[in-house]
Amino acid sequence: MQIYKKNTLRVYNTTSGKKETFTPISEGNVGMYVCGPTVYSNVHLGNVRTFMSFDVMYRYLLHLKYKVRYVRNITDAGHLTDDGDVENDRFVKQSKLEKLEPMEIVQKYTVDFHKVLQEFNFLEPTIEPTATGHIIEQIELTQRMVLDGFAYESKGSVYFDVLAYNEKGLNYGELSNRNVEELFVNTRNLDGQNEKKNPQDFALWKNASPQHIMQWPSPWGNGFPGWHLECTAMSTKYLGKNFDIHGGGMDLKFPHHECEIAQAKASFGHSPVNYWMHTNMLTMNGLRMSKSTGNYILPNELLSGNNSFFEKSFDANTVRFCFLQAHYRSVLDISNDAMVAAEKGFHRLMEGISLLDKLNTSTASTLHIDTWKEQCYTAMNDDFNTPVLIANLFEGIKYVNLVNDKKETLTAVDIALLKETLTAFTFDVLGIKNSQTSNNSSIKLNGVLEMLITMRNEARINKNWALSDEIRDKLAALDIELKDGKEGTRFSL
Ligand code: AMP
Ligand code: ZN
């Protein structure tokens, strides 16, 4: 299969801090690894934004006719909280809180994650490996690093020796541009009380206390793997010791991805990844969306309208459209206004697309559809610039309206090209769900509900409490809740 316009895609590489021409290791094939969720609780909208950015990159690579092996893992063990305390393992903590087995926690939130992805029309990765399914690989890597002097055992745990790594001329901190040498001068642990030689050393394997439920036998006793190691084990197992793209949110650059580079260089002698790609954060009230601070909204709270942040519910296509109106490397602050504007824009795009089949053909074109199509590709080839692509799609919709209003003309061939390009970029690349019918039904349902709210308001003005209560109760029986507030009555589905 021919790659569409080979060597025109440029991607921003965190390593160089520049946009680079994308050249895969094996022509026509792409290996891409994205750090998946830690399934100890529900994913929030911030997580969804990051996964959506990579979903669109995956979609575009497929659109260009690359054969992509897309690996996105599930972290189902070994993710300690920042203090590194074993007893603070997120899964163990959550299982105590919910009175469930850690593996019940993993199952519950993996199912939730998949449900969210389906709602937002994500393509499935080609491999979705789990940390617990790759314990043997992680033990083998750890053994190799101990053998080669890159790691040491301490009280049943194994740590990566950052100082030894740097003394071998390797450079811990290369991705995030940190000078760890300076840190060593100030923080070297001389008293030997600590398990680690240096605070910068990170766990490859952690000793588990007898009551720790998730543990596996190893050459160092029973324990569980450190979080960073799973991604090295799984990415290199499925994509090779050197692969094309590795992605994740910006917050994973350090220490997670820095540790991955160190582990791979120590184990295989070279850097594992050609293009490191990092997404920027979704913020709310100007602050990063995060579970730990409580500044977050869950996807279903947004979709159902069951929250106090947004004035109404929004559908998954609108959320997707809103997210993709920002470039993946820019911060996006979610707000009611942004969602309302996205909803309007999205409907305008859909209305334009629905007119395509009704356009009259002419014997000559007065618009340059070829040039416009190229601009769509240029936008996406410029580091997946979805906001510029969306601006181009609106330009395409402008053409549709001009031809529909008989102000411009297009030949049958150009109308077909306009349609093919608009629909391919909207549905295949941006991942908008092409359910004209379900979209229509949701618009109709909203219309019917607004009509019932108006009838109920009239009943209340006329003091016809029986009718107003009946409307509210019958909707409640259908799980549709009406909320009366300052700005009028809102509904949540
Ligand atoms: P976690 O389950 O915490 O490892 O997060 C899964 C992914 O979501 C990681 O790539 C994070 O970098 C990303 N992420 C976390 N918070 C946000 C946010 N507020 N905006 C965008 N991405 C985020
Ligand atoms: Zn990872």
In brief:
The chain has 493 residues and is an alpha/beta fold. It has 16 helices and 15 strands.
Mean pLDDT: 91
Strand content: 5-15%
What spatial form do the alpha-carbon principal axes imply?
flat
Physical arrangement of strands within the biggest beta sheet: 4-3-9-10
CATH homologous group name of the largest domain: HUPs
Helix coverage percent:
40-55%
Query: How many distinct folded domains?
Result: 3
Strand element count: 15
Distance between the ends: 45 Å
Low-confidence stretches: 188-192
Reading off the top of the CATH hierarchy, the class of the largest domain is best stated as Alpha Beta
What structural category do the secondary elements indicate? alpha/beta
Tally of helical runs: 16
CATH architecture of the largest domain: 3-Layer(aba) Sandwich
Using the coordinates shown, work out and report the CATH topology of the largest domain.
Rossmann fold
Largest sheet: 4 strands, parallel
What report would you give on this structure?
The longest helix has 26 residues. The strands form five sheets. A four-stranded parallel β-sheet has the order 4-3-9-10, with helices on both faces. A four-stranded antiparallel β-sheet has the order 5-6-7-8. It has a three-stranded mixed β-sheet with strand order 12-11-13. The chain starts with 9 loop residues before the first strand and ends with a strand. About 1% of the residues have low confidence. The chain folds into three domains: 256 residues, 3-Layer(aba) Sandwich (Rossmann fold); 80 residues, Up-down Bundle (Four Helix Bundle (Hemerythrin (Met), subunit A)), CATH 1.20.120; 48 residues. A hairpin with a 4-residue loop joins strand 1 and strand 2. It contains 16 helices and 15 strands. It is α/β, with parallel strands linked by helices. The site of adenosine monophosphate (AMP) has 17 residues, from helix 1 and strand 9.
